[in-house]
Write a structure and sequence with these properties.
Blueprint (H helix, E strand, L loop, with lengths): L5 H11 L3 H10 L4 H18 L7 E9 L4 E9 L2 H4 L2 H16 L6 H5 L11 H12 L4 E8 L3 E5 L5 E9 L6 H15 L11 H17 L4 H19 L5 E2 L2 E5 H7 L2 E10 L3
Antiparallel strand pairs: 1-2, 2-3, 4-5, 5-8, 6-7
Helix pairs in contact: 1-2, 1-3, 2-3, 3-7, 5-7, 9-10
Length: 280
């Protein structure tokens, strides 16, 4: 049996990120061959991961990639078991790598299809390999639960803790220098105020009719004459729209203008919004 030195064990630990005893066991199993020991550790990690597959992944991170010049934007949800892991630098890096790979690679319709692709940050490895290696080090189940790619100019924003994120598709003067900043600001607004629709026409007509009915009854309860109720309702509906329609909402960073005015002044049009919260 090959002699396993402390230096060899330490070298494998530095390479794998796993505990010393596991590294020593791997080297013993593989006759001291470091490359074979790394592969042995990976196989053992995959077996362990399978045994833990039913564990609840109740936290994690959202990550976005957006480039209006390249005409692409992505948003992904990577889940794990605990907040400390979700906030770790390695987990954040993996989430960002997945979002970037989805944007700059061939694209994917499902998480499984994406995970078998080569990583953008580590082109010699697949995303699945990187996910499995991180599991091996952290011993938590990871789940790539949602992905979305928009093949058009986009802005993107993710909250610092990864719990909320938005992707906004834009058209118009997307090549202007300030476009990326404005698009990101609109995404930040979306995350903060969670509009239900982009325009008034996008709202559910039944919801608008219900609101109109409620406002009409309230006006009658105030004893207002029927001949002015209609005008009152239209005014009060504007307040309703300013609460739930993106382009009618006062911009969160400057409430003297609406988001619609901000976009129009920049020569932009908002075409689609993806507003995600961790866990759905």
């Amino acid at each position: 049996m090959a002699e396993i030195t402390a230096a060899a064990v330490m070298a494998l630990r530095d390479k794998s990120g796993l505990p010393m005893m596991e590294c020593k066991k791997a080297l013993l199993e593989c006759g001291g061959n470091t490359d074979e020991a790394m592969e042995w550790l990976r196989r053992q990690g995959i077996k362990t991961q399978a045994l833990r597959a039913d564990r609840e992944t109740s936290t994690g991170r959202l990550a976005v990639y957006a480039d209006s010049a390249k005409g692409v934007g992505t948003i992904i949800e990577l889940k794990c078991e605990s907040a400390p892991v979700a906030n770790s630098p390695d987990f954040k890096a993996l989430a960002e790598d997945i979002a970037t790979t989805l944007a700059l690679g061939p694209g994917a319709k499902t998480p499984a299809e994406l995970l078998v692709q080569k990583s953008h940050a580590h082109p010699e490895r697949t995303l699945e390999d990187l996910k499995n290696d991180l599991f091996n080090r952290m011993r938590e189940v990871f789940e790539l639960s949602r992905i979305c790619r928009i093949d058009a100019p986009c802005g993107g924003y993710a909250h610092h803790d990864g719990s909320k994120a938005a992707l906004v598709q834009i058209s118009g003067k997307t090549g202007a220098p300030e476009t990326a900043t404005i698009a990101k600001d609109i995404c930040m607004h979306v995350v903060a105020l969670a509009p239900k629709a982009i325009t008034k026409d996008d709202l559910d007509p039944a919801a608008v009719a219900k609101e109109r009915e409620i406002l009409t009854e309230a006006a009658r309860g105030e004893g207002k004459p029927e001949n002015i109720i209609a005008k009152m309702i239209e005014g009060r509906l504007r307040n309703f729209f300013s609460q739930c329609v993106l382009l009618e909402q006062p911009f969160v960073k400057d409430d003297k203008q609406t988001v619609g005015q901000l976009a129009k002044d920049a020569g932009l049009e908002v075409k689609r919004v993806e507003n995600w919260k961790l866990g759905g």
